[in-house]
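Example record used in the benchmark description.
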Amino acid sequence: MIFSILKRLPFFSPPFVNVMASPISLNGGSLSFSSQRLLALAQQLRHYKPPPCSLDDNEEQIIEEAAGKVVSQVGFQESVTPVVQNPEKCRPKRAAVLICLFEGDAGDLRVILTKRSSRLSTHSGEVSLPGGKAEEGDKDDGDTATRESNEEIGLDPSLVNVVTVLEPFLSKHLLRVFPVIGILNDRKAFKPTPNPAEVDAVFDAPLEMFIKDENRSVEEREWMGEKYLVHFFDYEIGNKKYLIWGLTAGILIRAASVVYQRPPAFLEQSPKFKFPGVADKSTVMP
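Model output (structure tokens):
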């Protein structure tokens, strides 16, 4: 299982400029949006700068000595989690997930989620964001996230305008997961076709729920003397109930914080780990 940390934001930052007068340029291309809200959001997010990963000398030494260890079964933002950086000792695998946002019928901002296939060997039946590991032909994290989303749920990459990439999150086995925020301008053009080998269901949820203290539960856990909180969000849509937690919840808390420009209405309490010199069973997070 996996988990992370975060902050909040209002969906738009008034006042609006004449955003519909002309398309904006993103990633070197000209993109048009059907909604003032979506265009304003795209303009806001393209200026987002992830926080740096700042470590003191002692932490860097601890990190070097911890090469090869399994970080955890719960993911954390790399900016607050020391992780092996020495490429000669550890080469973390790279992955990307797509936070695909669109306007709902009620005008709210929603995100596309999946329920993983019950036949999968890992994290079966859990809620996740579409995405996966980077492949050799991928140009960047946006390419990885949209390619995987196409493979998993039939989301045509041409329908998604990638606007920014958040700071990476760390999962077990030192997998670096890059959350890619993309905007789906025409929701009706997307006809979900889940790959049955990977996905049991495709649904959407309001992004703002991940910074509200509603339908949320929490568990306090401890690892290597550091206490931290794991957040669980209960969500129901179409008479179906879903539990969103772990890495997915953590990434969505962060994404909602960035989009709505305000912190969550609850304590996140993520630890600043001090890695041991030797990796053994005691260093695996419960």
